[in-house]
Write a structure and sequence with these properties.
184 residues, HTH_TetR, DNA-binding, DNA binding, HTH tetR-type domain-containing protein
């Protein structure tokens, strides 16, 4: 690719693709430049360094997830929306950048303004739905934590080697319903 055809968006999209294939930790500046057919120095016009690339990758990943969730949830509301949220979140996370890499990226780069903004949008989506079905205003935060902890916990189980934790779709969906029954 010619340097004139590059942009920050193209660089981060390619980096996300590489991170999804090989993992975030194996993403290197030189490897990214090679995959874009440019010299590593050319990337400095669009990204500051590998930390900027990796934080941008995680932010792009979260942004895509949030956008996809919004589109997926349009026809749903209330507990049906939360149920779809959980199913879609888990299934889409399993089909892209490894979950462990996403968590590592959030831990390492979660303070960056771009990533903070994207995480905030994702949380606002779940909070909006939870707020619509929570009768006791003081329980909104607790309900959100319960819901998100359930999702993240299931993904963590899969990551550490309990493959049936999420792959058994019927049990997973029954557990979603059990968690949702606690939200009122």
């Amino acid at each position: 690719m010619k340097r004139g055809n590059l942009s920050r968006e193209i660089v981060l999209n390619q980096a996300l693709s590489l991170a999804s294939e090989k993992g975030l930790e194996k993403l290197t500046y030189n490897g990214l430049a090679r995959s874009l057919s440019v010299q590593p120095q050319s990337l400095y016009r669009y990204v500051e360094n590998i930390a900027d690339v990796k934080s941008g990758v995680v932010a792009e990943y979260v942004q895509r997830l949030t956008t996809s969730l919004y589109k997926e949830l349009v026809p749903y509301s209330g507990k049906d929306a939360l149920r779809r949220f959980a199913i879609y979140f888990v299934s889409s996370t399993q089909n892209s950048m490894p979950f462990a890499d996403m968590i590592s990226g959030l831990t390492t780069y979660g303070h960056t303004p771009q990533l903070v903004a994207e995480i905030t949008k994702l949380r606002e989506l779940s909070t909006t739905i939870i707020r619509s079905i929570t009768t006791d205003e003081s329980q909104i935060k607790a309900n959100e934590q319960l819901f998100l902890n359930f999702i993240i916990g299931n993904l963590a189980l899969v990551t550490v080697g309990a493959p049936n934790a999420v792959r058994d779709k019927d049990v997973f969906e029954q557990n979603i319903d059990r968690v949702l029954s606690l939200i009122n």
